[in-house]
Amino acid sequence: MPMPVLMLSAYEVEDEKPCTMLAVWGGISNEKELTITVASERHTLKGILTRQAFVVSMGTVETATECDYLGITKGDKVADKFEKSGFHTTKSEFVDAPLIDELPFAVECRVKSYDPDTWRLVGEIVNVSLDESILGENGKVSFDKFHPLAFDWMNKIHLSLGEKVGNAYKDGLALRK
Ligand SMILES: Cc1cc2nc3c(=O)[nH]c(=O)nc-3n(C[C@H](O)[C@H](O)[C@H](O)COP(=O)(O)O)c2cc1C
Questions:
Q1: Which ligand 1 atom lies nearest to the CA of residue 42?
Q2: Closest CA to 38 of 65, 51, 56
């Protein structure tokens, strides 16, 4: 099934250098929480657990190559991994972690828990950051302007979303008659 392309960013253990990885095994678990499976050996996880904070941004069609690069390159082996992506960062006002300037939709989280056996990282959402460039006239995210990536595990491909096909909580009412 298609999975969201999530970019996890944190600061390094020793300094405020950003580190970032790609994860698809995760999503929002409720209004204030998200759960992501992060393998215990990931370099980015060290920063996340040290500072008890991370940012999750959605990968975009426009940055698919950069996001994929961050998912196939290990921070433990490539010291300038983040710089090579060409991304830039701004410190979050809410948590001790960096926002990626080029990714317009991000969720800032405090670590709630991490289980090294199941690899499950649970984050408490403390802020949602939306760049104005992706907002429509009604002030909500417009998918004409924002193009998140989805990932297909079987074919190992990144995909874009398609057209609007219906109205949630409404169209199904037609079958209640
Ligand atoms: C399409 C794709 C999906 C991935 N999904 C996950 C995931 O859900 N969890 C995880 O721990 N690693 C996942 N990875 C692997 C990490 O992104 C990868 O190991 C990365 O190099 C880790 O970087 P780091 O060691 O610098 O933190 C995925 C990689 C790709 C390309």
A1: 25
A2: 56
Residue whose Cα lies nearest atom 17 of ligand 1: it is 71
- Each residue of 28-56: pLDDT tens digit? 999 999 999 999 999 999 999 999 999 99
What residue owns the CA closest to ligand 1's atom 14? 23
| pLDDT (tens digit per residue) in 60-97 | 999 999 999 999 999 999 999 999 999 999 999 999 99
**Residue nearest to ligand 1 atom 31, measured at CA:** 71
Q: How far is the CA of 166 from the centre of ligand 1 (A)?
A: 33
Total domain count for the chain?
A: 1
User: In the predicted model, is pLDDT for residue 177 greater than 90?
Assistant: no
Residue carrying structure tokens 């002030």: 139
Provide CB contacts within 8 A for 85, sequence distance 6+: 20, 66, 69, 70
Query: Does residue 158 have its Cβ closer than 6 Å to ligand 1?
Result: no
What CATH code is carried by the domain that includes residue 110? 2.30.110.10
